[in-house]
Amino acid sequence: MSADRLGEHRTLFVGGLATAGIVLVAAVAPLPVFVPLLVLAGATGASSTPAGGRLVLLAFPKNRRGTALGIRQTGIPVAGLVAAATLPWIAHLSSWRWALAAAACVTALTAVPLLLLRGTPPPPQPEKPLPHVGRNRNLLMLTVWGCLIVTGQYALVAFLALDLNQGAGLTLAEGSILLAVANAAGIIGRVLWGLVSDHHRGGSRKIYLLTINLVALIGSLLMFAVPRTAPIALIGVIVAIAGLALIGYQGLWITMIAEVAGPERVGAATGFAMPLSAPLVNAM
């Protein structure tokens, strides 16, 4: 709601700096207050999704929103890959507190470019109060859909490497490489689904959401049916198919949420839908 009332630039800047500051305090805080500080940091960091979604929605025409929001959503898995590659290394050389402090500094630096952008004034408030986003049937259906498909993303990201290690006899390193393949396919999917939906002549994105369902089902069934002795290259192809849908769905999903809510309520709508589905993935 802050993005809808205060403007997306202010929300992104304040939310980013607040998150960085809280994480930096958590890095030096005693353990009894460590968890509450991280919970608070999660609350402030959550501002980036509704504010960023509103910013992209207003900056691009409808036939380019899917691609733009898809590119924006790649920041999540890309940041995860970068964090996984660097923060454990920092923790190994020094301590986990220094790794946390490094993450806080990076967060603060990402907020600095917002100072160079021309801020937009807060959107005008409607004369009559708008109905609660929870009364929007299409938004409710998209939220339920997101809650269902995110369970597949959770299962893929959390258990793929362990299952391949214990069930197929692959090393943890090989399983991690295949997990990286799934994430890479998800990054491609977040852009691809938005791109093809932007060029759909009928203007409806729903068909591509249904296509994601089908691809996710095919990928899941193939992972279940493939023999444990299958070549690692074949497993990699199947994992990529699953990642294309189970990780790559978010760009198109966020685009549809923004469009059914409209520019006046995109922040509130995204804030309504994301907390119901995101905790499953963020809890990993």
Explain the overall architecture.
The protein is an all-alpha fold. It is built from 13 helices and no strands. The protein has helices spanning 2-6, 8-28, 31-45, 48-59, 62-73, 75-93, 96-111, 137-167, 172-198, 206-225, 232-246, 250-261, 266-282.
Which strand-content bin applies to the residues? under 5%
Give the topology string: H per helix, E per strand: HHHHHHHHHHHHH
Structural class, from secondary structure content?
A: mainly alpha
CATH top level assignment = Mainly Alpha
Individual helix count: 13
Return the CATH topology.
Growth Hormone, Chain: A
What's the topology here?
Layout: H1 2-6, H2 8-28, H3 31-45, H4 48-59, H5 62-73, H6 75-93, H7 96-111, H8 137-167, H9 172-198, H10 206-225, H11 232-246, H12 250-261, H13 266-282
Notable traits:
Growth Hormone, Chain: A; 284 residues; disordered C terminus; globular
Summary of the model, kept short:
With 284 residues, this protein is mainly α. It has a single domain, classed as Growth Hormone, Chain: A, CATH 1.20.1250.20.
